[in-house]
Amino acid sequence: MLELLPQAIFNKVALDLGAADLAALALASRTLSRMASCDELWIEKIAADFGDREHIIDVLADAGVDIAEQVYESAELVPWRCRQSSIESDSSDDGSDAGSDVSDSYGPCSYTGHGLRCYRSRFARVFPSSNDDSMNYTKSAEATLDAVKHMLRDGPQASSDIFSEAAYRLVLVQEYYPHSAECYYLWALICFMLNAFKPSLSFLSIGQTINSDFVPLKELAKEVRSIVKGAYGSGNEAPLLNDSGSGPSPQLARALAIIFQRLDTDRDGVLNASELSNMVRLTNGQPPQPAVVSQIIGAFGGQTRTINGRTVAGWNVASLTNFYIAQTLDDPSETRKDLATFGFDPATLKNT
After folding, report:
1. Cα separation of 9 and 71, whole Å?
2. Considering the entire predicted model, what is its pTM?
3. Which of 43, 157, 201, 271 would be 81's cystine partner, CB 3.0–4.6 Å?
């Protein structure tokens, strides 16, 4: 019955077998030998057994960290499923005939031996036969992890290049230690620093599957879930942030536009020191000291041009929005409380 399956369905069944069992199955008949030598099957099995590199890169891309080109061009990594050119190159190099690539109703399949060679290469890295190799791999991984932690010491203020390089170096560690919970924790931390909470949760979920007792994973997961619950809402609550976490949701943007108009009593398009003092009084229950007002003007605004062309120290709509994004990332409940103060339903963000 296995011989009658389309290759793509056979692959799904075969992925549940261990590598040794799959090799034994290939000895049962010529047909099964060919089906078990499918390149796509073994490249898929690398992802199943040693971590899905493609998924890692896609999640990082969702967080704004693009390392695809580094991975594609790296000579330090075993080729992966997207490098179809490698399979085609192998096919031409080993003298295979034009029939080595076939298609069924599920897509193209190739039988060049490239996939199996990739699996063996990755297996040898994860399970080295030499104790010396194992010790060298361990020392290299530890040094790389220490370097990544050092690179991330500046937190969210680090440059995009630093985040990309740190994420790529973790891929190098994961090549030899695919079940390292610390790699997934550090990827999650990078996403968290970039306010990409959903990608962060994706990495945290994988990491906790690998090692649910790894304390840093637990602590970061608790913090991220708390922010996500408040920032994106639960049940019928409207989100405060957009999907990327980099800006307000449409509901929050509308509410802040209305709030700005209410606070801008002189209608000049800028919240001056007096108007900002009134905002703080309304939200905190008492007027702030002038020095505090000066600090918040400097933190999110500055010298701002009014609609009449004058320059005033204060905030525009963007300043007010940036303030509430920052507050939401720190404490979403505080933002919802402020919205209630201004007459908005804290759950739906609708003007009541």
Report:
1. 29
2. 0.77
3. 43
